[in-house]
Amino acid sequence: MAGPSPSPHKPRRKAKRVAGDDGFSGGRLTPAEPLVRQPSFPLAAILWPARGTTSQWELLPLILMAAGLFRWAAGLWGYSGFEKPPIFGDYEAQRHWMEIATQLPTSQWYFHDLQWWGLDYPPLTAYHSWLCGKIGSLINPAWFELYTSRGSHDPALKIFMRATVIASEYLIYIPAAVVFVRRFSRLSGVASWTASVALVAILMQPATILIDHVHFQYNTVMLGFVLASMSSMLAGRYLWSAVYFVAALGFKQMALYYAFSVFAYLLGSCLFPRVNIGRLIAIAAVTAISFAILILPLVIGTLNDVKRGVDARPDLDGPRSPLPLFPRVVDYLDTEAFYYPIVEQLVQMVHRVFPFARGLFEDKVANFWCALNLVVKLKKYPSELLQKGALLATLASITPPNLILFFRPNKLLLPLAFATTAWGFFLFSYQVHEKSVLLPLMPMTVLLAGKHGLGKDTRAWVGFANLLGCWTMFPLLSRVDLKVPYAVLTLLWAYLLGLPPTSLSAYFQDGSSLLVQWGTALLHGAFYLTMIMWHVLEMFLKPPVDKPDLWVVANVGVGAVGFSLCYLWCLGKLVVESEILPKSWFRKKVKAKTQ
Amino acid sequence: MASEIYPSLAQCAIVAAAFKILLFPAYKSTDFEVHRNWLAITNSLPLWEWYYENTSEWTLDYPPFFAYFEWVMSQVAKLVDPAMLRVYNLEYDSWQTIYFQRFTVIITELLLVYALQMFVDSAHGSTSKRAAQTAAISILLSPGLLIIDHIHFQYNGCMYGILIASLVLARKKSTLLTSGLVFAALLCMKHIYLYLAPAYFVFLLRAYCLSPKSIFKIQFLNCLKLGSGIIAIFGVAFGPFALKGQISQIISRLFPFSRGLCHAYWAPNVWAIYSFIDRLMIVLAPRIGLPVKADALQSVTRGLVGDTSFAVLPDIAPNVCFLLTLLFQAIPLLKLFTRPTWDNFIGAVTLCGYASFLFGWHVHEKAILLVIIPFSLIALKDRRHLGAFRPLAVAGHVSLFPLLFTPAEFPIKTIYTIFWLVMFLMAFDRLAPAAHSARFFVFDRLSTLYITVSIPLILYTSLIHGIVFGKSYEFLPLMFTSSYSAVGVVGSWVGFMVVYFTS
């Protein structure tokens, strides 16, 4: 990874100036590289030769190739549910949706055999599955044959599926990340080489690679749309930001974690510093139109099926079954009307996408409820109470960051507000999956591209959140023998960013208060030690017979506490940086943080 | 005060090691089973039977030091999974075996890292140190080593580490003897390095055994040291077998002359071009009235597997190859003998590698590393050297592509090679100082054109051919790849010959 370095020989071509060529920097020159004599962590060392002379158009392709190589190599390992009959795993779910989308009439997508990985993602996922399935069927139709393809573990199919994840990511997440990092770093006054270092750190984030490219899912598509939405906010293109966010929601309902922040920012930017009703109406209209376009294929497909006499539920005879949600609606509707199949279709979609009927948490997740369950057995409480409790706690945790964002719609606060809100949802909301930790991690990780993003404080906290996040997913990964890629990718990232357990260089910076330094170091140190100890115990000791889940439970408890700290750090930083509180309140703290 | 150059070799090695561990489940060739079998043979049989054992078709055909090396590793393997050490356990590949064998490749490659650090330390001045560091990293991250060692499976990284250590030791007068002895030990590990031995012989003869002032004064003490050292090393390697009279058996294992002119698919050398012309002549010969040998036409494989028989052009005998190789090795050695500098020595080693690769009998495409790796050490000397190196870097690595033919490894081999080429050709371009004498304008343009052609070639061989012809005419992409690469290797050889003799 040794790029070129300055030499006495004059290169044939002069590097072109890249400043101010994209219309948003307002003709400002690229900020100069800070005068640093030596790289402070290995990733900076590896990109060191590219400082100064290399234009980012030479560096960017190399970064993208390297990121792609690591993704593809990680994909050589097994996937979720590999050779684990009878139901297999996420890989089979995604493959099965390609099967459904290409083989069945549109109106049956959300109804077909729900016991076998029934489609439970919003329509954009279904369209994406349709596209991937169509392309795959060109290569080998047997991969997506109805029924017979279930649980297929054809190695060639695996290569195709891995390729669809990478292709989707390179079409959506990666361009969004590149553009976001450029805009965010320019706005924060960060030089372009430093931004490239941050970009590599963001792209090599172990959690996303492990979940999408190893364990198997398409989270980066949704995360990419959210990043694109944030990036449009940075550029002041509010309408595009609404469109991208609808796309994110339309791909995976998990994007709702961010919805409050998107709403708070867009609304805030219409009201502060001065009221702009035109913008508000435009955003509302574009959002509504985007939703309409999102469900349009589903609606047209349904109408078309009705015309052809295809029933959405061919397995049911007799009268129509009641709607799964809002059964009262039927009283006001004519079930024989032309629009009724559409209503039925959309209600079914919503029902599939938001499974209200499930419990507070499904598996062991490192969130508040699961941790609380260790102390108080939550099962003895009625589920309505728990639902209300979850709702209240979530609202309480997400209100502060979103109020701040609403009253101070400042572009530089976006990642912090998004991260705080997503942490709030992850910790307190209903029906959380351990993979959902990707949602708070994404906006928190892009902080690396901001002001002092690669400085010790931010690097230490972002690193802590990511490494802890990967660690809480270890039980999930180890179930399908993915310990090696887990260890390699997390340790590599920790090494690149100079984080524990490979280095302590991210702690004890000059100039900040001793209390904060020692506090952070001891706090993180305790967690890192616990994580290492936990791995040692998990590897060599079998849990006692009466407590078979002991290690997982310990993992969940530690994770929940650590994530709460991440929530508090993001919230604290947000409060400080928004300058929403009178400065005199915590002048000392400001000093400590901004050094 | 450029004390440290970033990134350091260790930093690159760590990142590369992470990538290589991720490649554990990748495709592995029969060489994996070959080495597992050797672990089993050396561990479970007495020394006297190592070169006679033939349960597996992959008999031990490396010199004794490599066998000892396998024996050492087998002591650890015993703790990992004893089942891999049973000779009859053919094609055994439990995950422990895979982890263990793949891991030994990464661990033994540390020798390469160490040798490269020696190379960087041996450079003087901050500019040349920076160049040396870049060249060292380019070798460490070489796509050749990645493809051959970490996917296909072999231990080249470790052995090229020994070679580089020996080459670097030759840089200083005081370590010349060690350099020669290390090379002797390397020969006892893998005999392919015999191809480079003439350059060592001439260099050590002139710089160590003869007086620097006159070639007629012999430094007897040095001769004695070198001679006895080499005899001792060969004694340790072959002595135990010689006592039992097994030398002829070992030689028959090490040099199987019964193989054909070209390997399974043609290595990109002169004979590949020769074969390609022969294939063209099949079409052209009837028109100009040349006779076509009927039996060669009927050979279905057409150069894909086994013996190549030529339809129009005369067949090549092994001794023709041998004589041509010696001839083209001798030419650069004359200059080395008259001016035994280190730069000339590395140039001569490179040219010996070239000659044996281009004209040798049954050359394997993996042997291109014999040229690329020594050449990398001096590629940054000036822009003329770099001009000759560039087509070699492209051709040499593209010619390794057919080694991996599984779809899962296709993106890795292509993207990694492109990544490496873009990064290092760009870095080299900035680092190489201007040459003292003029460059060949035409040669530069031709080499740019040549590099550009590689893109449609890769597209054709990997994608278009499959779509247009499906499974038929499988030899076509291989033939194009090796002919294309052969042109590049031959071109860079001619270019480097000129540079070598004019600088």
Automatic annotation (TrEMBL), chain A:
<feature type="transmembrane region" description="Helical">
    <location>
        <begin position="159"/>
        <end position="181"/>
    </location>
</feature>
<keyword id="KW-0812">Transmembrane</keyword>
<feature type="transmembrane region" description="Helical">
    <location>
        <begin position="549"/>
        <end position="576"/>
    </location>
</feature>
<dbReference type="InterPro" id="IPR004856">
    <property type="entry name" value="Glyco_trans_ALG6/ALG8"/>
</dbReference>
<keyword id="KW-0808">Transferase</keyword>
<keyword id="KW-1133">Transmembrane helix</keyword>
<comment type="similarity">
    <text>Belongs to the ALG6/ALG8 glucosyltransferase family.</text>
</comment>
<protein>
    <recommendedName>
        <fullName>Alpha-1,3-glucosyltransferase</fullName>
        <ecNumber>2.4.1.-</ecNumber>
    </recommendedName>
</protein>
<dbReference type="GO" id="GO:0005789">
    <property type="term" value="C:endoplasmic reticulum membrane"/>
</dbReference>
<keyword id="KW-0256">Endoplasmic reticulum</keyword>
<feature type="transmembrane region" description="Helical">
    <location>
        <begin position="255"/>
        <end position="275"/>
    </location>
</feature>
<dbReference type="GO" id="GO:0042281">
    <property type="term" value="F:dolichyl pyrophosphate Man9GlcNAc2 alpha-1,3-glucosyltransferase activity"/>
</dbReference>
<dbReference type="Pfam" id="PF03155">
    <property type="entry name" value="Alg6_Alg8"/>
</dbReference>
<comment type="pathway">
    <text>Protein modification; protein glycosylation.</text>
</comment>
<feature type="transmembrane region" description="Helical">
    <location>
        <begin position="413"/>
        <end position="430"/>
    </location>
</feature>
<keyword id="KW-0472">Membrane</keyword>
<keyword id="KW-0328">Glycosyltransferase</keyword>
<feature type="transmembrane region" description="Helical">
    <location>
        <begin position="514"/>
        <end position="537"/>
    </location>
</feature>
<feature type="transmembrane region" description="Helical">
    <location>
        <begin position="484"/>
        <end position="508"/>
    </location>
</feature>
<feature type="region of interest" description="Disordered">
    <location>
        <begin position="1"/>
        <end position="31"/>
    </location>
</feature>
<feature type="transmembrane region" description="Helical">
    <location>
        <begin position="193"/>
        <end position="211"/>
    </location>
</feature>
<feature type="transmembrane region" description="Helical">
    <location>
        <begin position="223"/>
        <end position="248"/>
    </location>
</feature>
From TrEMBL, chain B:
<feature type="transmembrane region" description="Helical">
    <location>
        <begin position="410"/>
        <end position="428"/>
    </location>
</feature>
<keyword id="KW-0328">Glycosyltransferase</keyword>
<dbReference type="InterPro" id="IPR004856">
    <property type="entry name" value="Glyco_trans_ALG6/ALG8"/>
</dbReference>
<feature type="transmembrane region" description="Helical">
    <location>
        <begin position="223"/>
        <end position="243"/>
    </location>
</feature>
<feature type="transmembrane region" description="Helical">
    <location>
        <begin position="316"/>
        <end position="334"/>
    </location>
</feature>
<keyword id="KW-0256">Endoplasmic reticulum</keyword>
<keyword id="KW-0812">Transmembrane</keyword>
<protein>
    <recommendedName>
        <fullName>Alpha-1,3-glucosyltransferase</fullName>
        <ecNumber>2.4.1.-</ecNumber>
    </recommendedName>
</protein>
<feature type="transmembrane region" description="Helical">
    <location>
        <begin position="475"/>
        <end position="501"/>
    </location>
</feature>
<feature type="transmembrane region" description="Helical">
    <location>
        <begin position="99"/>
        <end position="119"/>
    </location>
</feature>
<feature type="transmembrane region" description="Helical">
    <location>
        <begin position="449"/>
        <end position="469"/>
    </location>
</feature>
<comment type="pathway">
    <text>Protein modification; protein glycosylation.</text>
</comment>
<keyword id="KW-0472">Membrane</keyword>
<feature type="transmembrane region" description="Helical">
    <location>
        <begin position="192"/>
        <end position="211"/>
    </location>
</feature>
<comment type="function">
    <text>Dolichyl pyrophosphate Glc1Man9GlcNAc2 alpha-1,3-glucosyltransferase that operates in the biosynthetic pathway of dolichol-linked oligosaccharides, the glycan precursors employed in protein asparagine (N)-glycosylation. The assembly of dolichol-linked oligosaccharides begins on the cytosolic side of the endoplasmic reticulum membrane and finishes in its lumen. The sequential addition of sugars to dolichol pyrophosphate produces dolichol-linked oligosaccharides containing fourteen sugars, including two GlcNAcs, nine mannoses and three glucoses.</text>
</comment>
<dbReference type="Pfam" id="PF03155">
    <property type="entry name" value="Alg6_Alg8"/>
</dbReference>
<keyword id="KW-0808">Transferase</keyword>
<keyword id="KW-1133">Transmembrane helix</keyword>
<dbReference type="GO" id="GO:0005789">
    <property type="term" value="C:endoplasmic reticulum membrane"/>
</dbReference>
<comment type="similarity">
    <text>Belongs to the ALG6/ALG8 glucosyltransferase family.</text>
</comment>
<feature type="transmembrane region" description="Helical">
    <location>
        <begin position="341"/>
        <end position="357"/>
    </location>
</feature>
<feature type="transmembrane region" description="Helical">
    <location>
        <begin position="6"/>
        <end position="27"/>
    </location>
</feature>
